[in-house]
Each structure stands twice: as C-alpha cells, then as structure tokens.
Amino acid sequence: MVSREDGKYVIWAVYFDRNVSRRDGRRVPEKLAVENPSIDKIFQIAKELDLNPVIEKDARHPSRPWRKDGRILVDKKDKKEKLIRKIAEKLA
To answer: Are 9 and 51 in contact (CB under 8 A)?
Structure first.
C-alpha cells in the first residue's frame, strides 16, 4: 500500500479508459480518453515527463477487482489532476 509519506501518487489505467464512465473511475474528459489504455504506454509517458514511475502490473483497481489492469506510482511533482491531464494529452 502506498502512503502519503512515500511521496508518490497512484495512477491507474482506468483513469484514461474511454469505455469507463467518470462514475466508475475515468478521470479525464472523454476527448482525452483512449480505448483500453496500456499500462506500459502510460509508464513510458510518465518516464518522458520525468516522474520516476514504478509499474505494478498485477495491481487491481478497487472498483474493478476482477481485472489486473496495473498501476503506476509517480513522484508528486505537481497536483495529481495536472499530472493525469499531462499524461492523457500525450496518450491521446
């Protein structure tokens, strides 16, 4: 489990999934969302943004425990929503 003291945000692939509603976990506007976002692609973008990402491929989003979508841990270099938006803009 990641704690506040770790200095990391958790970024889930579901945040960028066009097929998921905001209510179910998408965090970006539909125009920036993509179908079936790849955790590896998100990891590469986070690396390009110099966020020192750490990938956890077997992680399961709490609202989707039946899927191993994975998650990325990134440094807290800005507000979480800004970082998510930057990743989404490069992903789209």
So the answer is: no
